[in-house]
Amino acid sequence: MRRLPLIALTLLLPACDSRVDPAPDTPAETPISGEPGGGISDGADSPLDPAIAAGEIPARFHGVWDAVTGTCDPASDMRVEITSRRIEYYESVGDVSGMGSEGDDAIADLVMEGEGETWVQPARLSLETLPDGEQLRISDALKPESPDDPLRKRCPA
Prior knowledge:
Layout (H helix, E strand, L loop, with lengths): L2 H10 L37 H4 L9 E5 L12 E3 L3 E3 L4 E10 L2 E10 L2 E14 L2 E8 L10 E4 L3
Antiparallel strand pairs: 1-2, 1-8, 2-3, 3-4, 4-5, 5-6, 6-7, 7-8
């Protein structure tokens, strides 16, 4: 009878090993950071966009954007205004707390505020060149980009 507990203890000892090895195929994440030189990169040896390195949204995304069929009127619910440190939506505003990139896309960590609530939202900003001109897609950076994410046209200045 004494051998049974000893055998069980011997079998459990390897399970008590405190070392934890990460799975070899698990990609390492780079945190989004507002610090110069921080942020997500595409893994290539290309230099980080200076605006992203400074924790700002790159100038190519700045301006007023609206739904492709929108009027660009301030009352349009798909209208967004983007500056270097802020994205203003119809009923909410997001201040940049960190920036990163994946390829040509900018990834903005936004501290959002709207309708009496606050939350953090990572947003992917990507530009697409189409026959009618350049269009902006804003999507959830934690999810795969989807063709269902709406496109926006640049509004006249």
